[in-house]
Design brief:
Layout lengths: L5 H28 L4 H6 L11 H9 L2 H32 L5 H9 L10 H10 L6 H25 L3 H9 L4 H12 L1 H17 L2 H6 L8 H5 L10 H11 L1 H23 L1
Helix pairs in contact: 1-13, 3-13, 4-7, 4-10, 7-10, 10-14
Length: 275
């Protein structure tokens, strides 16, 4: 283990403190400014509000129809993450445990998606969705998110499945367990930290994504949260007080989910680092 002296610890603490301040300051400013008027934001953007009036939250919630946007975002994010976990776990298990022709080629083909930004393929994606009549549908958006999330999920879960001792599966096979039973009752429980990391990373990315909903969704009743908040950005002026309130509301679900799963998330990240 690397030993760090007293001076080194102080340097690490200083760097981490600066990092936390840089990350937390924009969120704190958004939250503080969500209680001010537009004039108050321009006059004193860094000061505390004179009163904690929630009128901006009420108006932002009503004007952007955030209740409907929350339902759409939650539905799309949950189903997309579920699809990514189901497909990537089965792919990772088959590639990790079975020998068949072109196994390595198929794996390389899957993980090459890590190097290619999905947004570069927006034109073929748009044409394909149009051919299948999936434009302006939540299903089309879910299909795109599942397809673009499989590469990272398969790569991470295969690394975890490679670390599962084969003796455990052989013992189960001798006791009469089928391949499907071994996958469900042995492989999946042992890769739970990786599944939580994959699920959380993809959920945050899908929840906050603005690009694909902007291209695929046209109807107001199918908008996600980032798309709904964009109505406060005008051509000549922006409603910063409503934008701050809406953004503060939009991060709440992510913060709740992260705090609930943070123990498993950190365990998965550190275990992956050790491997």
């Amino acid at each position: 283990m690397l030993k760090v002296g007293k001076l080194g610890k102080w340097a690490i603490y200083t760097i981490l403190t600066i990092y936390v301040v840089l990350i937390a300051t924009p969120f704190a400013m958004i939250f503080i400014n969500s209680f001010k008027s537009l004039r108050g934001i321009f006059l004193s953007p860094f000061s505390l509000p004179s009163s904690f009036n929630i009128q901006n939250y009420v108006e932002a919630w009503r004007s952007a129809n955030l209740f409907n946007a929350y339902i759409n975002s939650f539905l799309i994010s949950t189903l997309s993450v579920g699809g990514i976990l189901i497909l990537s776990s089965m792919l990772a298990y088959v590639i990790s445990r079975y020998e068949f022709p072109f196994r390595r080629t198929i794996y390389l083909f899957i993980i090459v998606g890590l190097a290619l930004p999905a947004r570069l393929a927006i034109i073929p994606i748009y044409v394909m969705l149009d051919n299948f009549n999936l434009l302006d549908t939540r299903t089309g958006l879910i299909v795109v998110y599942i397809a673009t999330g499989i590469s990272f999920a398969t790569f991470l879960m295969k690394r975890f499945m490679d670390g599962i001792p084969k003796e455990i599966e052989e013992s189960a096979r001798i006791d009469g367990a089928s391949p499907w039973t071994i996958f469900l009752k042995i492989a999946l429980p042992l890769t739970r930290p990786a599944m939580i990391v994959v699920g959380l990373v993809n959920f945050v990315g899908i929840w906050n994504d603005f690009f694909f909903p902007l291209i695929i969704i046209n109807s107001r009743n199918k908008e996600t949260v980032p798309l709904a908040i964009s109505i406060f950005f005008g051509e000549f002026s922006n409603k910063w007080q409503l934008i701050s309130a809406a953004l503060s509301l939009s991060v709440l679900p992510i913060m709740i989910i992260f705090f609930l799963l943070s123990r498993y998330f950190i365990a998965g990240m550190t275990e992956g680092a050790i491997k």
